[in-house]
Amino acid sequence: MMAETRNCTPYAAFVFFFLFYLLVIDLCCQFHGENSDDTTMYKLSRPLYEVPSNWKPQLDPCTSDGVICSHGCVIAINLAKRSISGSISPALGNLTSLTSLQLEFNNIYDPLPRLSKLFSL
């Protein structure tokens, strides 16, 4: 008697795509984790005084005053002439899509942190 064989291809394809889906979700969560622009913008605002009132950690940084985004990434910050004082957080270096940073005519009293990852600035 011949043993009956079963076609497992649909089941294997389902398992493969399910595992692939989990991998994509995991990668997305890592991307939007500690180094995301919203977390970075929050860290950037902490040592500053008189930043715009809508710079809050629970808000999308792309809706904040003085911030311009493209595809969900911060590409420009314009806080010129805003009477801001304080120091700039080293977290600024995490905004890798940043192309413009305007802080003139404020009272920033520490030197800017290393910005070696900001190739477009």
Automatic annotation (TrEMBL):
GO terms for cellular component: membrane. It is found in: Membrane. Coiled coil: none annotated. It is a single-pass membrane protein. Keywords: Glycoprotein, Leucine-rich repeat, Membrane, Receptor, Repeat, Signal, Transmembrane, Transmembrane helix. The keyword Transmembrane helix applies. This is Leucine-rich repeat-containing N-terminal plant-type domain-containing protein. It comes from Zingiber officinale.
